[in-house]
Amino acid sequence: MPNKNYHILIVDDDAEFHQQIRYAFRRNYVFEGAINIDNFEKKLKERSDYDLILLDLMLDDTDEMVGLELIPDISKRYPNIPIIVVTSENKIDVVVKAMKKGARDFLSKSDYDFDYWNKKFQEVIESKTLREENIILRQEVQKHRDQKQKEFTFVGESSKVQEIKRILRLVSEEPDITVLITGETGVGKEVAARFLHLNGARKDKPFQAVNLSAIQKTLLESTLFGHKKGAFTGATRDMEGYFNQANNGILMLDEIGDIDANIQIKLLRFLETKMIRPVGADKDIQLDVQIVAATHRDLKEEVEKGSFRADLYQRLKAMVVKIPSLRERKPDIPLILQHYYPEVDIKQMISPSAMDKLINYRWPGNIRELKNAISYMQLRRKIFDKNQIDLECLPVEIQEFDELSYDMGSAAPPEPPPLAANQIPANLSIEEEHALIDLRKIEQSLIRKNKVKKDVATELGLENTDNLRYKIKKYFDKHPHLFKDFPVICESYKRIVKLEE
Amino acid sequence: MKQISYIATNQLLPQAISTWFEAQNYSLKPLSIHSEKGHPQLSNTNILLLFVPFFHNNVYISIENVWKKYVALHYPNILLLTAGYIKHTHANYLDLLQLPESLEYFIKHAKSVSEFDSMPFSGGLIIENKLQKFYEGHGDESLTDELGKVYRMVTIATDEVKIHHSPYIEVLENIFQANHIVDKWSVLINRWHNYLPFFKGLPFFETFKEVDAILKQIAPFFEQECKIESHLIGFNVKEKLHIVKQKLEIIGRQYA
After folding, report:
1. Scanning every residue of chain A, which has its alpha carbon at the shortest distance from the alpha carbon of B147?
2. What residues of chain A, 413 to 432, have a C-beta less than 8 Å from chain B?
3. Which of A321, B102, B111, B226 could form a disulfide with B176 if both were Cys (CB 3.0 to 4.6 A apart)?
4. Is A326-405 a CATH 3.30.1700.10 domain?
């Protein structure tokens, strides 16, 4: 690493020592010197970015080790400049004192050795650089966290939201309780989980969120619990799972109603013992993770149907928090819009009539749908070259929505045809049934991901968009009649899906 | 008859007192401090008696506690006794003006070196103080400080010549002449010669003699004002100074 760009300040009352070190290391570093304390202070005022200070302990022609007293002050004022003490006093108690006061290392003047000294200079400067990089990285992480926090801010002042926030704050005081967050799709269950994290005892610890329905079933166990090298084909190295990554923090398991019996039993074991066993491992690992589960399904119903374990449900329902749908908290809609448009006054940006429509729409996709609508409206405003979002800019379904035909209260809207319906027509073959379930997932994902195919492929656990296209083509070739219920797929894959009029 | 090995700078004293020892059924055997292997020949000794203080360089020198450390480190089973004219009551001290009635009884009740802190002071110049000055990091009396300076300059110069192939004239000017190495060498040698006689009675004096010999080997390089490049490399000045440093450091760590 010897680098002429590194600046070293020698502080020593022995001018000959300066000259010798400058000469010996002239190829490696740039040196400046100070021969007394005043001179030292002056140098530090002139530039505060030295990469290293070599400090003698005996200064100003005294027999006192005045240098020793300078170390804490310099370390405090210039924490980024490391100090190596270079002195003739190599008694162990002096070394210990110097290190305790903040010196990073110690060199004895009478033991000069170019390689050893150079190595010490390098180590200390490198650790300084690493420390600086570490600070930058920490700032980046904080920035990222702040961004995430902003992205996941629990916006709303309606009485329902205030009540939810109050409950979440109370729950956050219990860092070991398992929490089940329920609510329709898109209501902000992850936002609620992050709110819990930010306000709880584990706020400085990791928060991991995983959508269980987005991970291929065959990979789910190793994704959650990790695996050992050689545990299965393709396991070329040990890998930590989400549980490990969330250790000491919170793990949010979204769409918990979608996991199969095998994962259910492993999760139940974790909730009971706090132990996991990675795939292929012969030992359990003890972890401290708070589980926040979330689902849009009615787990009680799933238990009755036999698709969800009753004992796991009992564990999960220790603390249930239901997030209201957007139509149940209509007063919050302008606030949410403002949150996503922080740079403009939302009342100026959206015309009153458009705002009325937005407030009174039923929002079956909840906040997720609202976010997508925002992007759509912005784009339309630009296309029409308008200063304001008006009715014309709204998505067609909002424009055409007739609020009078729906109950304005909290009742859930009628399920949209086939897409939202979970029922499978009785007359379908097993192959058709599989295709239908798959296509529903793709359709929903396309809506959620604003038709960005790459994101859809990722969400569905597919390697790339080619695989997604292949899948759709395969289903269309075999079951073209199923596609009439999936307008978004049809629109996104016009070249493949050609429905007869 | 049992045997006691002794070290004395004035041989007349043990001779004068040997009759008393023989009457107590002990014979006195003189021991040379200086052997060829660098240590006194103590391996066959059970009892070591030092007639203190030692007399070197026209000065009485109290060496007893350095010997105590030495015996404790290298021969912990030897019974160390001192004998002198100062009045002391110490289990390991023979008052020559008031000898005990029974030497056998005295020896039986003397303590091993690990059982007491220090030997009774014999009244001479305390050699530990000299050693401390010798090894001090700073100061007008420090030898190691001066040695460190000379060693550093010689090392820098040797690296320049050997590793970087810098022209010798440049090294001579920038290191040796700019830093007045010849003056520093003179200071070093003067201090060395001042200290050496005081250390004659120490158990590790052989090491100082070896150091003295090495310093003499490299002296011509400095006497020629470091101007002869071949001396720097040919005399292995850096390596020899390093050996000197190492030898002195070992002693310094244990006794200074």
Report:
1. A110
2. none
3. B226
4. no
pLDDT digits (tens, 9 = 90+) for B64-105: 999 999 999 999 999 999 999 999 889 999 999 999 999 999
Please give the C-alpha separations between residue B157 and each of B145, B218, B219, B221, in angstroms, as whole numbers: 19, 15, 17, 13
pTM over 0.80: no
Q: Residue A6: count other Cβ atoms within 10 Å of its Cβ.
A: 20
**Distance separating alpha carbons of residues A61 and A58, to the nearest angstrom:** 7
Tell me: the pLDDT tens digits for A347-392? Answer: 888 999 999 999 989 998 899 889 888 888 888 888 888 889 998 8
The nearest alpha carbon in chain B to A86 belongs to B137
CA–CA distance, A18 with B155 (Å, rounded to integer): 15
Segment 351-410 of chain A within 8 Å of chain B by CB: none
Q: Which CATH superfamily is domain A7-132 in?
A: Response regulator (3.40.50.2300)
Best probe of the B interface among A19, A112, A116, A118, by most B CBs < 10 A, is A112
The C-alpha atoms of residue A148 and residue A194 are separated, in whole angstroms, by 9
Please report residues of B whose CB lies closer than 8 A to that of A111: 148, 245
Do A109 and B148 make contact, defined as CB atoms within 8 angstroms?
yes
The predicted-structure confidence for A161-171, as pLDDT tens digits, reads as follows 899 889 888 88
Give Cβ neighbours of residue A401 (< 8 Å, ≥ 6 apart): A357, A360, A361, A362
- Look at strands A285-286 and B2-7 and give their pairing: unpaired
Task: Please list the rounded mean pLDDT of every run of 10 residues in chain B (256 residues).
Answer: 91 90 94 68 88 92 95 93 93 94 95 93 94 87 94 97 95 96 97 94 92 97 95 95 95 88
What CATH class has A156-322?
Answer: alpha beta
Q: In terms of CA atoms, which chain A residue is nearest residue B252?
A: A91
Q: How far apart are CA A365 and CA A335, in angstroms?
A: 18
Contact A91 B138 (CB under 8 A): no
Alpha-carbon distance A24 to nearest alpha carbon in chain B (angstroms): 6
Chain B touched by A116 (CB under 8 Å): no
CA distance A119 to chain B (A): 16
